Protein 1
Amino acid sequence: MSGDQARLAVHAARRTADGALTIVVVNKTAEALTSPLSLSGFTATGSAHVFRWSGQEKIDQLPDQALSGSAFTATYPAQSVTVFQLGGSVGNPRPLTLSVADFTASQRGRVFTAALQVRRDDTGALLGGGQVTCRAKVSGKPRSSSSSGFSGSSARCSWPVPKRLRGKRIAGSISVTYSGVTAARSFSAKIR
């Protein structure tokens, strides 16, 4: 924290994905300020990656800031935002990928249901939302789902299977699209 947050504001956060510490320093004044910055509760090694916005149309990546123990001194241009990243990875984040955590397809009474749990590979978290797409055919004819969507962390699709369809095959798929990435599973089963 800065000794004078009204002039030079300092904020920090630790990223859980890779343990990186990000420090944001905002110079709110009309003049350049030089100030030491010391860290506590974080073991710093090597150097910090530095990014700066100073009113231009883009954010510049600057040369790395050498660390001296758990402290360094830097100059912050007038009305600028400087970001220091210690540890972790720099550059574009890895692309989002999804994987199927669990899948079931079964009939209960006169309803056939497919359920899909999808996990984000970057965080390991199960999705609790996204676009659910349900497709099914019986004897080559498309069937409309009676319900689709999320229930907790499971995407679900249900189709009515009246008695007249007994003995026929229902085949289809359930998919979840989240942030432009899709995970899907297909199924095929004999209607009871």
Protein 2
Amino acid sequence: MTTQETEKQAKLGRPALPKSKKPKPLTTGVISKLLRVTPRTVGNWCDSGKLQHWRIPGGRDRRVEVHQLVEFLRHHNIPIPEEMQALIPASRLLLVAPTVPMLDAFEGALRISEDAFGGRPVDIAEDAFEAGLLLRGVHDLVIIDGNIGLGVSSQIAEEAMKAPGTRVVVVTPEDAGSPVLPGCVLIRHPVASSDLLGVISDE
């Protein structure tokens, strides 16, 4: 591992970036009680593909992630029960493949104005594979370091924007020319703390 890679790893572990906690998945029984419907109704939503879910390996029990249930309710204009509010994860910010300069700029923005972040937890994906695992419709802002490659950045951005309301910012390489990334906000390396603060505050 090079000195720069070691420095990057050290930065990724800094406590200044609050880590998010994933809420526990819900059983169909819990969902039926929250929504005051029968378990059969929840099962029908799952069977029809309306409510995304997964099954425990080797078993028949279904599990539904909180964000999947929230997306289902919003899509079908079903009011979110008051009892569910505490289960809904806070909006989160995702940094994808941040280089050391971008981490420095991000932490600088955090020091300048913590209010702009609204106490949101921050996820960090070190590469495209990890970004794919983390993109689950719970990030309202995704910032991609374009040094990962503009083609890869475009793919990640397209996946992120499938979730309604998600904004994507790509920090393009200094020598990237004028890339076309539909739907994305573009800023250029070398990125300053004020640049990142600006796109975060624009939400």
Protein 3
Amino acid sequence: MKTRKFTLIELLVVIAIIAILASMLLPALNQAREKAKAIKCVSNLKQISTGTALYLDDNMEFFPQQNGGNPSCFWTQNIVRHGYVGNSNLDGNNLPQLFSCPSRTIAPVRDRPSWGLNTQISEWGDYSNGNGITYESIKLSRLKQPSKTFVYVETLKWNDYSSGAGNWGMFMIARTQRPTSTGNERWMPYHKLMTGKATVGFADGHVEGISRTQMDIYAATDDLPWTTGL
């Protein structure tokens, strides 16, 4: 019995069918991959928010300072070194990987997590405005609507990103900051460059993914959700 061989045309048809099927499946696979990254991003921030809640319990409901003390200690290091989040034995400027969303390509360090702490919640702990007023963090009980008040907002260190240095985050975030702002340190909500949702942690501990459209609305608002109840 003769063994039938594929003709060149038949082989090309099979290859073409495989290519068509692959082109149909790849977008679905990429979409699933991005969804998994988004879920992981929310999970990471939820762990940070839970650790922050434990910090509040142990510190009379005061939020961690953005940066304060001698030697200087960022809020990220504060909650890690005291065992609220991640491995408390980390040395130097390094942070646990959970301080970064999977979409980021650079490992997080103390002042470059994926999320910034709302400047209305906590300011520099050792910074004076020249009039004898030192900016510090506020108490949770001062917030009238914790479930609607931002604590952590996904950020992007704009001058690093625009120069090609990487997609770092920034340890602090304010509503008014934009890529066009002046100064050595410029940052912005990462949602400005996202087609999906930015992860945001609220004062009551819950985490949400917020659309770019909604974040743009929030960015134009002086009170809710940046200074709710203050």
Protein 4
Amino acid sequence: MAFLSKVHKSFLALTRISSHFQFLVSRADDLVSMMTSKLTRKSFDFNRSICHQYDYIVNRITSSSKNTDELVDLEKYIDNLRSGPLIHLKVEVNLLLLFVAIKLQRFLYITCISEINLYTDVCQIIE
């Protein structure tokens, strides 16, 4: 009888631990979802900004010059691009690639959490 009592207490303790674990997993998943949503919104705006900058550059350098002064201004603009704005855009694109890497890591995290949830579901069925 004492053995069954110990088994019962162990079972109740494991059940509490399992429910706490499920809560922690759920909360962690919620926090990751919130952070990912915010990063996705910021990334979208950031990406859109990069696209607008590139569009402006393309429109400016492909425009037809009407006279020599405009052609000289265009040449100065292109020289200036090489020394500053294009380098800045390259840095921004690298940041965007970092965000993509973070999104991939998030996908892998979700996959791991799904496997943990499956494992705890199986454990509950066994109990």
